[in-house]
Model the fold of this input.
Amino acid sequence: MPIHVQALSRRGFLAGSAAAVAGLAVGRGAIGAEWDANRFALLSDTHIPSRPEIEARGVNMTRNLQRVVGELLALEQKPAGVILNGDCAYLKGLPEDYANLASCVEPMAGGGLDLHVTMGNHDDRGPLYDALVMQKPDRVVVASKHVSVIESEHANLFLLDTLFEVDVVTGELGQEQLAWLAEELDRRSEKPAILFAHHNPQFTPPEEGTRWSGIQDTAAFFELIAARPQVKAYVYGHTHRWSIGRRDGLYLINLPPVAYLFEDGLPNGWVDAHLRAGGMTLELRAIDPNHPQHGQGVALEWA
Ligand SMILES: [Zn+2]
Done:
């Protein structure tokens, strides 16, 4: 299983082994740079197309991601991980989309930034693994799903897979993944847990004749969470709408898209997350530095 232990002491070793595996792969790079083991860069919905010049809704998605990668590389204290929470590819998860994505994120490897991805409804696991070799797990733990656990000092991060069918809006975790998640959470019950997946929770079924647009097994997912109080937050993308909500004490964090928006005036960009004892602080980094929400900080607290 792809367990990613975030510990600075391991970097020296890993820099000499894992990173050397494949040219297009993203892995650990420079040794000796300053990392913050409790900092994570949260990205979602990059929607990278097959060619860099392709735009959608007035946005050049490739340029937006390149810009964010540049910002990450320029950080004085580098994040322990960069999480791209699904819809990495434009619409159909084409090999060409991932080739473009691989060249966008390639500088991260040299800069010592670890990339972790989840699958969105516009992704396709096979072509993604082919282009981003490091993302392919050594061993599949949940059939047809891409999952991993990042263990860090103050919280364990669980990266889940809600891809149901490529280019179909609906999200699903599925029984096998839920069983895996329950087991992995129960093995780590003492430390706060933060769950990541692409799709939004959807608590009411869609109207007849329409599809689920969120997670169709939300009820089972939230029943599992409710029984495990160490779960403090669920982080998702999909709606392209930055927001933080709360439900029964659980934080619901909807990441902004790196790519285009569905509604004018909302911010796109990424979120700088700092984990600490008893909580996490988030800061919005908007693509437009003049956006009124750029730099907005939110402190989340948990017992
Ligand atoms: Zn999207």
